[in-house]
UniProtKB/TrEMBL annotation, chains A, B:
Residues 10-141 form the Nudix hydrolase domain. It comes from Polaribacter pacificus. The lineage of its organism: Bacteria, Pseudomonadati, Bacteroidota, Flavobacteriia, Flavobacteriales. SUPFAM superfamilies: Nudix, Winged helix' DNA-binding domain. CDD domains: NUDIX_NadM_like. PROSITE patterns: NUDIX. This is DNA mismatch repair protein MutT.
Amino acid sequence: MSGAYNSDDKILVAIDCIIFGFDKESLKILLIKRDFEPQKGHWSLMGGFLKKNETLDQAANRTLLSLTGVQDIYMEQLYAFSEVDRDPVERTLSVSYYALINIEDHNEKLTKKYNAQWFDIADAPSLIFDHDLMLQKAIRRLRRRTAIKPVGFDLLPEKFTMRQLQKLYEAILDKEVDKRNFINKINSLDILIKLNEKDMTSSTKGSFLYKFSQEKYDDKLKNNFYIKL
Amino acid sequence: MSGAYNSDDKILVAIDCIIFGFDKESLKILLIKRDFEPQKGHWSLMGGFLKKNETLDQAANRTLLSLTGVQDIYMEQLYAFSEVDRDPVERTLSVSYYALINIEDHNEKLTKKYNAQWFDIADAPSLIFDHDLMLQKAIRRLRRRTAIKPVGFDLLPEKFTMRQLQKLYEAILDKEVDKRNFINKINSLDILIKLNEKDMTSSTKGSFLYKFSQEKYDDKLKNNFYIKL
DNA sequence: TCAAAAGTGTTGCGTTTACACCCATGT
DNA sequence: ACATGGGTGTAAACGCAACACTTTTGA
């Protein structure tokens, strides 16, 4: 029974990427207008097919690179979607990934060269196939991840202010947090480096810039590190 | 480019199930001696192949039923493993699932009719392919799940004592907890029903039996329910 | 009467939350 | 001078962790 390697049951394996970005106020996802049938012209996640000689992680990175020109960003496998008729053309299994990117670093290429577009997660259009499901699952996962890993930093520029970080967490968790409590919490984690520079664009007084310290974080990892807001 | 539905890249999709059980003292997994090549005779997770006309969930349930006679148990998709050479015979993607079953309810069938065997997770043999990896991931996931869902009850008989529940949590989390604190915690969750029966097998005094209340739990779900030990 | 497991509360400590005012600067 | 966002500390409430003795009953 289970010993059968039966070629009849071979199927296509797709990968679809939920790409999160952040632009000072809200959490966004990157979508493209699908340029082939079926559902040509509808909004879709970035997707592609797994090739025979690559892993899923490789396929996800390759797809992302080819569709957006972006590479070396945080990506994580999410879930395998397998409804028999999820793709009307052909039986396809899709493994979804989610990725976090810093919009500023990549924006021009994305929206010009490729016809991709950022949408606020609150008002994203409805997506093809089961992509809405994938998106919902990705958001839940991202929310949970923030409690375990300092994952948000991938969504910010290298240097950022406390307020930006706070806004990011508020956007991800979809709730407001008290500014003093937030700063106390983050400082107690001791994973940031306070720079001697200020960002003068947001206020007359200017606000200090910070950056994430991988070294400090690695130290903390040994002792059950977690962030809870 | 990504529009290509290219048949050359069709591959087999396997599913492998990590089946957890609990026998009063320790957390166990169910393994079988593989009865076909490659690696015939080595210990393996329960596995099978996805058929063209079924979902992964269905395939996982079908496989479990056919290999163990067990059905209607808690199962959850874990992760898709995709190393190109993970199966030496043929390019295969494997989506792993983990399941929780109550050993007492199913034991005879499992170990007699099928040549399956329970192993303490602490001294399981090494497994074929990437199954050890799958097992590690499943254990981590199960540990984390206990904090979010009262998932452990699937591993116990319908009626159980507080001490059994405590031992289960200790086995899953691999740490000892204080009995009074544990009971206080569980009681404060208010998801159990205390029965007017005692289990007289474990002591002369006897200990009260409890059962899980789905209704109470569903009520709690509305307000960010979680268990932390 | 003794052995073995069941059952039961309190206190201290640390973490989380709520909350309000002054500061620096450009206009 | 004033408007705007930046920056700072404290007190109360709560949740978690540590801790020891009495009860029951079969052997």
